[in-house]
Amino acid sequence: MLYRYLQKLLLIAGNAAVLLFCCQAVATPYWITGGTLIDGTGAEPRPNPGIFINEGNIVSLGEPETLPADAREINAEGKWVLPGLFDLHAHITFKLAGARDLEDDVINALRSERFLERYQEIGVTVVRDVASRYHVGYSLKRAQRGGLIGGARIYVSGPLITTTGGHATEFQPLIPPIWAVEADGPWEFRKRVRKAAKLGADLIKTTTPYTLEELSAAVEEAHLWKLRLTAHLGGAQDPYHTSGRIAVDAGVDSMEHLYPFGDDDVYRDMVEKNINLVPTIGYHLRELDGQYTYSADYLEKHLGHTYEGMVERFRRMHELGVKFAVGTDSNAKDLPTIDKIYLQELEGFTLGGLTHMEIIQGATLIGAETMGLDGEAGSIDAGKW
After folding, report:
1. Does residue 98 sit in helix, strand or coil?
2. Do strands 36-37 and 46-47 pair parallel, antiparallel, or not at all (unpaired)?
3. Strand partners, 181
4. What percent of the chain has pLDDT over 70?
5. First-to-last C-alpha distance (Å) of the chain
6. Can you give the pLDDT at residue 195?
7. Contact between 325 and 126 (Cβ < 8 Å)
8. Domain 2-81 class?
9. What is the rounded (10 degree) CA torsion for 284, 156, 223, 215?
10. Strand partners, 60
11. Half-sphere exposure (CA, 13 Å, Cβ side) for 368?
12. What is the CATH number of domain 85-371?
């Protein structure tokens, strides 16, 4: 029942979201009338008062005094009108499984362009790529900002930063990782952040293991460059489940995943410091189902990661007031099924006890807030795109 509900919402949102993004690209004025508005703020659905969009931005809600002669009117009667959706955890520039180190960068770039187009088709208008293949992510962003390609708007971290032997280096340890760079000690972390900023990163991504000194240095350096930092939590490289405490104390801006990473004190500090979590619940469900590298038995033995424990953590964080943003942890091989994967992520949020409206917020305004974009996107408000 919920899956059908969310699927209907997403399909309808796709029409509105694609419209909102495309009008930015072609600068066509739009006047959207009729339908029911869910504005992304958590407010109850209400009749759409009319939305006037010009040059890619929402100009006003309610009928304007005058409309440009070339304005296109869209009648949304019988439909829902939503903001464009967000995916805050994607890896569209490489395949997580297979001979990924042997793939051609050009093929990866072309497939990534198609992935962004596909995201837009299903209503996702912002994608945060939190670990890119070599420089493909940077190049993709530059191509899009330069008007060479379209699709969902991409924000990139470039290759993630980890310590020697850290997460993302374990798959083929004799070959330099394609989507991670290694650093040891606070000054190496600073240098990696500086290089990412130099190359055009929109944010910084780190993975376990890290010390408080290393992560604090990375956070401080990222903030000097006006970049946010998100930290991967838990996993095989966090056997004592201390990454959450380290991340909170280091002052990260957001966190990723639902592996064991802390306790109620950590969760409360997340709320106090306004650190949102991208739980990637759909990814974890597929992982625990044996669809990825490790079996459920391995995950329980080496990571302390079980379905029951994951759901309990999710619900407890929600009870304590942690805010959640939607992120699928998709990678290039998920291109054909990204619509189903995104819906699974939305549906998975119910395991944490979130209401339908809270889920929509996680896919819109809370997603924007987590990225620092809530002043310009994430809800249907004048002045936003």
Report:
1. coil
2. antiparallel
3. 161
4. 91
5. 32
6. 99
7. no
8. mainly beta
9. 40
10. 52
11. 22
12. 3.20.20.140
